[in-house]
Amino acid sequence: MVRRVFHIEDITLGSSRDEFLVRYRGHLLDSDSAAAYDRLAESLRPHAVTPLFRWDGDRHVILLTASQAVPTPSNPRINLILFILTLFSVLLTGGLYGLQDALPAEWLPALLVFIRNGWPFALSMILILGAHELGHYFAGRYHGAHVTLPYFIPFPFSPFGTLGAFINMKDHPKNRRALLDIGIAGPLAGLVVALPVLYIGLRLSSVSALPVSIPADGAMQMEGNSLLYLLFKYLAFGQLLPAPPSYEGFSPVLYWLRYFFTARPFPYGGTDVMLSGVAWAGWAGLLVTGLNLIPAGQLDGGHMIYVLFGKSVAQRLRPIILVFLALMGFVWSGWFLWFVLIFFLGRSYAEPLDQITPLDPRRKALAILALVIFVLTFTPVPLTVLTPPLLP
Predict the structure, then answer these.
(1) Per residue in 297-353, pLDDT tens?
(2) Who contacts 324 (Cβ-Cβ below 8 Å, separation ≥6)?
(3) What Rg do the C-alpha atoms of the chain give, in angstroms?
(4) How many helices and strands, by DSSP H and E, does the chain display?
(5) Domain locations in the chain?
(6) Could you tell me the pTM of the whole model?
(7) Which of 191, 223, 239, 288 would suit a FRET pair with 165, their CA atoms being 20 to 30 Å apart?
(8) What is the C-alpha separation between 233 and 17, in angstroms, rounded?
């Protein structure tokens, strides 16, 4: 069966210490390695054997391994319960976000106020997260991968009412092309929904003056800027926001470079957009896209680096990413958490069964596009919470 697709130069039988049953080294007979893999995998399936295509220098290697058991299907009731809980959680967050006056004393009128205030944000947030995860899901199903339905994570009384959503891919992707399709489908689908939501939300928002100081009994939360968010605010309002009252002796370029990466100094007395609930959800969609495209580990961005440059380059890039996150942690402390996550969980990659088949030009362009989107959606300081100074 192997000789139908492979010129064998040597054969090694695996032992109990090896991860393979048999190893063949040589060269594929067909230049279409993806088709060769499909033919061999199909012929070996009745024997419960799975082939792996690898490189050994300039030679091809085929490893035969024992097939893993077919993953058991997940329980869709769990997905449904988590979705309903998340829907209530984001509705609560949206209701609190849009609350202007005191709630009615009776519970039913209060509930109706919450629903009226919260549904635009809740619907927008669910659509963005759902599009992202369903993009992964349908791409996985297209390539025959065993993927679960999305798991939404409720997180009430938080800025977004949720910690996002995820799907679980229960087996290895077939090749780099499949991994690219599955990895990029989520960010692209989520962004396709997030951008119109953001623009519509900005048009529903208003530009107002910022306070000259924080009241002694109050606090203020300020969202951060990505390049794409700055562009959409400019398209909606014709100016870069937040607009400071003055540039404090700096040129506009130097001022914005400093403010973009540090969110300092806060533009007291300037003007900024007061985000509607829909705009808040759209901004969150950009943030989620940027975080998912961090080029490390099992994140979508990690998949892009792996399929473009291979595992060795991805591993060499990881320390650079960690140093960058550690430095950014001194600007926004949340990056320290991402440093820890990638330090411990960013070492493994979704390695395809067939590592010989390269990306085609169209998919290379898509992977590069994903990295460009990461640059455009990366938010150096996602949130700034301002409190009045402590009095001596």
Answers:
(1) 889 999 999 999 988 899 999 999 999 999 999 999 999 999 999 998 888 888 899
(2) none
(3) 25
(4) 11, 10
(5) 2-66, 76-200+282-384, 206-281
(6) 0.91
(7) 223
(8) 59
